[in-house]
Amino acid sequence: MIPTVLVLGANTGLGFEATKHFATMNPARLILACRSETRGQAAVDKLKAQTGYQHAELWLVDLSDLDSIKRFADKFEADGGRLDILVENAAVSTEMFRAGEDGIESSLKIAALSTPYVALRLLPIMLRTAREHSSIPRLVVVSSEVHYWTDIKKEVIDDPMNIIKKLGSKDYCNLKNVMGTRYWLTKLANVLFVRALTARLPASPTLIVTAVNPGFCSTELMREAQSSGIGAFVLSIVYALLALTPEQGSRNLVFAAVGEPDQPGKLQGQFLFNKQPVEPSDFVVSEDGKRAEERFWYDMLDIVAVYRAESSRPNDPQSECASGLGPSRAIESHRGDPSPSCPASLTSRRSISAAFGEWDDCVREESSVEVFRVAPEGPNRTRTSASANGPKCRLITSPRRASDWIHIGRVASIYYT
Ligand SMILES: NC(=O)c1ccc[n+]([C@@H]2O[C@H](COP(=O)([O-])OP(=O)(O)OC[C@H]3O[C@@H](n4cnc5c(N)ncnc54)[C@H](OP(=O)(O)O)[C@@H]3O)[C@@H](O)[C@H]2O)c1
């Protein structure tokens, strides 16, 4: 029996079909995370009727809204349960520019920011599960073969502006062909995230992380095209001729979640299709791809850090950098700068702590450069701090098991009072 499974975007398409497969395995807990209560409840009812599994739970989360993710993850932490399988399946395919207050185009935000943010918030719970139950949890990020069809231009990778904000800005999205290929970029962002996270995991697997390609399937993903009569007609023919059913495609998600039980390490960090690791795109493995991977990772952390800073202490004057720069600028100004002249805000520390676990007592160095390691909650918590004047890490507290560490990377400089 599998213990706890959580599927994001579970009310329809591949997510729902994967959930049905999981239900037939009779898991201790099966959580359908959906953005709409009505559609989510309908899916839970359908699941019960079609599989006989009666314990499915509906949790609400809207991945276009970081507040919603925060509430979702806070609730999961407070719930105190284990998490063995997390399937990050929710996505949008759109050619229309839509953005919330942060101005980041919504489908890119879901892939490049929200999907990593959910994973990083739930990572400590998965690591605790691994430790307490001697298991190897799995994180499955649903990507696609369309990531082969795009890349990211050198000038974007080299641009000092946050890469997610740049690619998600209205100005950039208004450029020719950008929104027409936006979905491909979102799926590339999924692959880059999986590789960036895997690079920070310990060699002996504590957690298996994969990107999976379900294949071309007849789901609601192309709902924009389906909304016009002619589009719906053309798609129905294309689907009939070429597409897998959602159930067939969902088998790929299930394989990533439970396949290779005797050698799960074979799957680590891989791009999976048809039950096996396949090469990701040439761009992904190129030098530029590697640089893009790092840019997405650190720029995602910066946005999350600033979000946490602003959402935890919105009116605190100390949340501003000493030079008068806002927290966002303060954090971004430190990338690659070993001796920052402007210390980042106090709230950077708080925000990271709130974003990635319980870190409240972590920083004891003034103007130090943080290297965060997420460890499971409890007495094993640990963190390191690198001095601003040198690259050597100094251990602040000792873990019992170093294998629990995950190197998150340098996030921000810290001004500690
Ligand atoms: N279908 C394909 O041919 C294909 C091929 C390769 C990869 N994929 C990938 O497979 C995954 C599933 O896609 P699908 O084909 O099953 O599409 P789908 O039928 O449109 O399902 C997408 C799911 O994501 C949810 N979702 C969208 N935006 C969300 C948000 N802001 N917050 C929370 N949930 C949100 C949707 O909820 P609502 O119903 O409320 O919108 C729905 O449950 C996606 O990652 C997609 O990129 C699909």
Write structural notes for this entry.
The chain is of the alpha/beta class and 417 residues long. The chain has 2 domains: 4-288, Rossmann fold; 314-413, no CATH class. Helices cover 43% and strands 13% of the residues. The protein has 15 helices and 12 strands. It has an 8-stranded mixed β-sheet with strand order 3-2-1-4-5-6-7-8, with helices on both faces. It has a 4-stranded antiparallel β-sheet with strand order 11-10-9-12. Helix 8 (182-199) crosses helix 13 (287-312) and helix 13 (287-312) crosses helix 15. The N and C termini lie far apart (50 Å). Residues 312-347 are annotated as: Disordered. InterPro entries: NAD(P)-bd_dom_sf, SDR_fam. Residues 312-321 have a biased composition (Polar residues). Keywords: Oxidoreductase. It comes from Mycena chlorophos.
Summarize the helices and strands and which ones pair or pack.
Elements: E1 4-8, H1 13-24, E2 29-34, H2 37-51, E3 56-60, H3 66-79, E4 85-88, H4 106-133, E5 138-142, H5 154-158, H6 163-168, H7 170-173, H8 182-199, E6 208-212, H9 223-226, H10 229-242, H11 246-258, E7 271-273, E8 276-278, H12 282-285, H13 287-312, H14 327-332, H15 346-356, E9 369-373, E10 384-386, E11 393-395, E12 407-413
Parallel strand pairs: 1-2, 1-4, 2-3, 4-5, 5-6, 6-7
Antiparallel strand pairs: 7-8, 9-10, 9-12, 10-11
Helix pairs in contact: 1-2, 1-11, 3-4, 4-8, 4-13, 8-13, 13-15
